[in-house]
Amino acid sequence: MSAIAIGQKPDHAHTAGSHADSPAAYAEHVRRSRLGMWLFFASESFLFLGLLVARFYLWRGDAGEIVRPALDQQIGLIVTAVLLLSSYFMNRSEVAIAHGDRRNFMSGLLITALLGTIFLVGVVVFEWGLFPSLVEGHLKPTDGVFGAVVFGMTGMHALHVLSGVVLILNIWWLGRKGHFSAERHWGVEAVAIYWHYVDLVWIFLYPAIYLIGHAYGAH
Amino acid sequence: MNEPTRAKRTTGNFYSQGIVVAIALAVLTAVEYYVALTIDWTSILMLLALIKAVLVVNYFMHIKSVWTEEESH
User: CA of A75 to nearest chain B CA: how many angstroms apart?
Assistant: First the structure.
């Protein structure tokens, strides 16, 4: 996340004579930071690719066919819809600051953070069953290859969602203090593309966990 | 000239792209769900996921901005 940390400073650094004050220098800084973010995404994708390979290698039926655990389809669809909707509001927030619309910028960030939190609650409470007194989960991490891989995939993704929500709230807090403008908002852009990356990962995890293959043990 | 009003009107035009992409993603997700519950065709599900990924990478993550100078919002 160093690209974000580096990216935030010039968004509110307006010291006369500072290196980042020059529009050309700032544009170059953003260009390099963007490349850094995409390299970070490339390295991260190996982690999720490994989990996907484990899923398709391990989740096999008696005849070697691709199977999946019998999870609650409604929960999978709802959390997916919530995450896709959050990506829309993150995009809206980014577009807003790029065009000087601070009201939509700030509200978009809060709605995105809220939807991200709803996604986390959906996975942790309803899918994992972290609070069995409220909702019984469908699997436990110790339930063989299904439990291990489902918790590995959703756990790693939930960690990214959590970090994304923290970053969005950080950007919101800085925005409240007057940081970022239509000309200088790399910090916002970096957090936005990070959030969309989290959504992108789920676009592949959702069918892999919930949709592809026959539900094992189901009739 | 009223600058904030002009800025807001211009921004409204840019929001429409996000709305179109969000609707496309929603429709593709619904199709994905329907395909999984009816014909259960793995290659179709992977193709749908790939189309959704292309939309997100292209329109939300602005991948083109990595190698182009202009803003892609």
Answer: 12
Contacting A residues, span 110-169, partner chain B, CB-CB under 8 Å: none
Contact A171, A188 (CB under 8 A): yes
**For residues A136 and A171, is the Cβ–Cβ distance under 8 A?**
no
What tokens appear for B34 in the block? 């329907």
Q: Residue written as tokens 């220098």?
A: A25
Tell whether A73 lies on the interface with B, counting CB pairs under 8 A: yes
State the pLDDT at residue B11. Answer: 56
pLDDT at A200: 97
Query: Which pLDDT does position A132 carry in this prediction?
Result: 82
Query: Which residues of chain A fall below pLDDT 70?
Result: 1-20, 217-219
Interface contact A84-B25, CB threshold 8 A: yes
**Average predicted confidence (pLDDT) for chain A:** 88
pLDDT of residue A159: 97
Domain residue ranges in chain A: 48-61+71-215
Identify the DSSP state of B61.
Answer: S
**pLDDT number for residue A2:** 43
Structural domain count, chain B = 1
CATH superfamily, with its number, for domain A48-61+71-215: Cytochrome c oxidase, subunit III, four-helix bundle (1.20.120.80)
Nearest to A198 by CA among A206, A207, A209, A208: A206
Does the residue B36 lie in any domain? yes
pLDDT of residue B69: 65
Q: B-chain residues within 8 Å CB-CB of A88?
A: 18-19, 21-22
Question: B31 and chain A: CB distance < 8 Å anywhere?
Answer: no
Which among A88, A203, A213 has CB closest to B18? A88
